[in-house]
Amino acid sequence: MILGSLHNLYYHLLASPDSETGLEHVPPYGYSDKSISYCLVLSKTGELVDVQDVRDTSGKKAKPKLHNVPRPPKKSVNISPSFLWGNSQYALGLSKKTFQKNDAKDYFVAFRSYLIKALSKTTDDSLVAVTRFLNWWEAQGFTSDLIKQEHLDSNFIFKIDGSVNFIHQLPEARRLWASLVDDLDSKSPKGQCLITGTTGQSIARLHDGLIGGYFKNNSNKSVWTLVSFNRESFKSYAQDQGSCAPVSEQAAFAYTTALNYLLSRENGHCISINDTSTVFWAEANSATREHKAASWFSSLINPPTDDTQNKLLGLSLEKIAKGRPFQEIAPELDLQTRFYVLGLAPNAARLSIRFWLDSTLGELGQRITEHWQDILISPRPWNEAKPPSINKMLFQLIPRRNKSNRDSPKNLPPAHLSGEFFRAIITGTPYPVSILTKLLSCIRSDGDINGLRVSLIKGVLVRSFSHHSTKELPMALDKDHPSPAYQLGCQFALFERAQFTALGQLNASVKDKYFGTASASPRSVFASLHRNFNRHIADLRRGKKYEKWKGDPQLLAAWLEKRTGEIINQLSNHIPATLNLSEQGLFVLGYYHQRFVPKVSDSVLAVALKDESDDIELVIERD
What we know:
Layout: H1 2-14, E1 31-36, E2 38-42, E3 48-53, E4 65-70, E5 85-87, H2 88-91, H3 104-118, H4 125-139, E6 155-160, H5 171-186, E7 190-191, E8 201-202, H6 249-263, E9 270-273, E10 276-283, H7 287-301, H8 307-321, H9 326-329, E11 338-346, E12 351-360, H10 361-375, H11 390-394, H12 415-427, H13 433-446, H14 451-464, H15 484-503, H16 510-520, H17 523-541, H18 553-571, H19 581-595, H20 602-611
Parallel strand pairs: 2-6
Antiparallel strand pairs: 1-4, 2-3, 5-6, 7-8, 9-10, 10-11, 11-12
Helix pairs in contact: 1-6, 13-14, 14-19, 15-16, 15-17, 15-18, 15-19, 16-17, 17-18, 18-20
C-alpha cells in the first residue's frame, strides 16, 4: 500500500511539470537528481579549457545544485563509475581523501575504461571529445592549473566549449544511456512485481537509497533504504536480497524517486517531529488544490514563522475552539481530496515506518480539529498569533531542571512517544497513557505546571479516561465538577495563594514541598495544609500581607474562605487516601483552572462577596 501510493505519486509528478519553469518535478527512469558543483569544459579535441562553477549562489554561501544526471550504480563497496559524471576521484583521479585499498587514480582508470567501452561505437563529436579528454588527462599526469584544491571531492559533469547543453543531456548520450539501462535490466532475474502485479519484470536486487529529511541517529549514514535484506535470517526459500520481496526495477526506481522528492526540504513536503521525518502529499485534480491541502496540513502541525500566516491560523483555531465544523474552518479546501502521511525514523540498517495514513482531507481535518479541541483549556496557554507546534508540545515531556536544557536538541523527548502521539492525532485514537505518566513525573521533578503540560494532560484524560466519568472534562474552571481529585487540585491552588499573599516568595513554597504528595496521597497531607491555610487566613484578616502584593487582604481572606467552603461541600468532608493515574491528572487540571482565572478588581470582588455570586473568580497571579 505504501510503496504503491509512492509509485503512483511518481507518475503523477512526472506528468505534472512545474507551472512556472516547465521543468519536471522528478527525473525519468534511469536518471536521478544529484548535487553537482562544477563542470569540466572541454574543447573538441578533448583538452580541458575551463572549470565552470554551476553551484547555487543565491544564498549567503554557494552550495551544490541538483542536476538531472544518469543514475549512479546501486550502493557498492567496489569502484563503481557513473555515466558521464562523477566526483573528482572518478573524473580526475584526484581527491583530498586517503583510501585504504585503492588510490584515487584507480577510480579514474575504472571511470575511463567504463566510458571508453560505453562510447566506443558512437561518432558524436561531443562524446568522442570526452574519450579524448580521458586519455589526454592521464597523459598530462593528472595536473592542470585550472584544477584548484577547492574543486576536489565535488561532483563534476562535462560540457563542450561554446555549447549550451551539458554532454549528458545530448540526444545521442541519452540514447546510449537508455541502451545501457536496458542491458542492465535484461541481466536481472525475472518475476512478478509486487507493486504493479505485472509478470516477467526485471526484479531489482537492491533498491535506490534515500537522502534528505531530518534523519538523525548515532551513525554517520547519509543514505538510507526503506526495503533491504541484509541478514541471513531475513531470507526465505533460498531467495536473496530483492528476490525476497520482488519489486521491478522501474517500480523500485519510481517509489524511491518519489520519496526522495518528498524528503527534500526545499519541496515543502517534509517536517520533523522529534526524530521522525514526516512526509505528506495530496492527490487532487489540480496542482493548486494539492498545494493548498499540503500547506494547510503543514501549518497546523508546524505553525509558520510569518506573522500574517500565524494570524490566519489563529483564526482557524478560534473556530475550532467554538466547535465549528471543519468545512467552515477551511472552506477553500476540497474535503474529498486524497491525503497521505508517512512517518519515517532511522534504524540500524534501514528506515522504520512510525505511522502511515491514507485518508481524505475531510477526515484528516476533522481529526486534527478534534485534537485541538481536546487539548484546549482556559486560560489558553499559547498566544493566539503563535500556536505551539507538535515539537513544542513534545518538549514538555522533558524535565526542566534549569534553563540551559530547555528545548535543547540534546534533550529530546522519547522517540516512541513522539510517533505514537502524532499517530493518535492523525488517526483520532487515544493519546498514549504513558504521556500522562511522563508529564506527572516531570511536574514532580521540576515543579513546572505550565499550560502546555496541562493541556496535554487534559487531552490524554479526554481520550483515554473520559468513559470513566459521567461528566465531560471542563475547558475552564468548573466549581461543580464531581471529581474529588479535581476539587482537591482547586483547593491546593487556594493553599498556595493564601501562603503567597501572606508571606510572599519563599525558598520552598507549599507547592514545592507538597504538590507531589498532595496529588498522589492527599489524605496524608491535606489536614496539615488546612491548618497552615487557616493561619494564613487569620493573618490576612488582621491586615498582614506580602508587601509587594497589591490588594485588600481582608477581601481576599473572605473570598478564600468562601471558595474553600464550596470545595468542602463538593467533597462531602471526604478526602481520598490515594489518587490513581487519571485522578492525579484531574488534580493537576483543577489546580491549573483555579490558579489561573480571570482577574477582577477589589471592588468587583466586594460586590461578589456581598451578593454571594458564584460567577466571579479571583486571579492567582504567577509567582
